[in-house]
Structures are given as structure tokens and as C-alpha cells.
Amino acid sequence: MKRLWVLVTMLAIQMNSLQEKPVVHLQPHMNTIGTEYGGDTLELIGAPTVVLLPTQPPLLDSHGGPWSVDVKNFGPNTVTISGKARFNVQVSVGQTVHIYSNGSVYSLKR
Questions:
Q1: Which pLDDT belongs to residue 12?
Q2: For residue 21, how many C-alpha atoms fall within 13 Å in the half-sphere facing its CB?
């Protein structure tokens, strides 16, 4: 029985480590994606119709990697993500987009 418990515990730890990115949520009253969300998956639930990226596109995330964010919209409405240099992308309900910054401009990574 003890072996089974250890095996189940190890399996749970491995499954948790399979998540590629931390998942964070934009608070319903917020309309700005902060630089601290770089490297994360950002879930939008009841977000405003327009959500802004950081004014100055970041170069690196907090781990030293290229700044990017995955944005998943759980609804109930389509959300427009807007950033510098006329970057705009509409995220439909159920859709996930990957936004990348090189420190100067934002782009979609497909």
C-alpha cells in the first residue's frame, strides 16, 4: 500500500511539471497585461473588450527569456489585445494567441 501511495504521489508531481507555463488570470477590473506576465499563460475571464499590452514592448521576461505571453479568452465576449505600433489582435472565445515582443514591437507567433 505504501508503494502505491509513493507511486501515485510521483505520478502527480510529474503531471504537474508537464505544464509548460504558469497560468495566471487577469482580474476582471484590469485592462492591462503587465510585463510580469511574460512567460505565462494569461487566462481572460470576463475581461474588458480591449486589453492593453505594456506601453514599451519588453525584451526579456523575469527568467531572462524572450518576452512572450499566451492569452486564452474564456469569454463571454471577443477581446482585442492592443499594443504599440498598431498591434491589434482579436481573441475569440475559446481561442489562444501567442504574443511575442522583441523589445521594439509586438508580433503574433504562430
A1: 47
A2: 21
